[in-house]
Amino acid sequence: xxxxxxxxxxxxxxxxxxxxxxxxxxxxxxxxxxxxxxxxxxxxxxxxxxxxxxxxxxxxxxxxxxxxxxxxxxxxxxxxxxxxxxxxxxxxxxxxxxxxxxxxxxxxxxxxxxxxxxxxxxxxxxxxxxxxxxxxxxxxxxxxxxxxxxxxxxxxxxxxx
Length: 161
Prior knowledge:
The protein is α/β, with parallel strands linked by helices. The chain folds into two domains: 2-116, 2-Layer Sandwich (Nucleotidyltransferase, domain 5); 121-161, no CATH class. The protein has helices at residues 50-60, 73-81, 94-102, 128-137, 143-160; strands at 2-7, 25-30, 36-40, 65-67, 85-87. It has a five-stranded mixed sheet, sandwiched between helices. It is globular and about 35 Å long.
């Protein structure tokens, strides 16, 4: 069975990208022998409809299951219409989540997990805020916030003294 995983890079060791429609890669794994194909997500930079375009891409490759972090309402509808099972909330590497799915440790979701336009960021640049959360999970401060936070601390000290 072909299992598609939204990925941050192009290998089985790649971490999952939580943004289905805007992930950079799809890794499609044959669950029988763990052979895989990597597809660049051409919809990741779309101004709109990325989830629907991404769903069409993986459906055309014969994926029967999608494993991702989150899926929006339009992508959920397109994937469901194509008969693709959707598993959300996954984390780890591509290989780890495929193995978890094969062992029955991951279950299908019955509804979208985020609203529309989730992976687009919030005005700083596409995806920055989402990637900032990933950096924070690794106990790192997002690079673009370091300067802002240090400047804030300087101003705060002046106000207090």
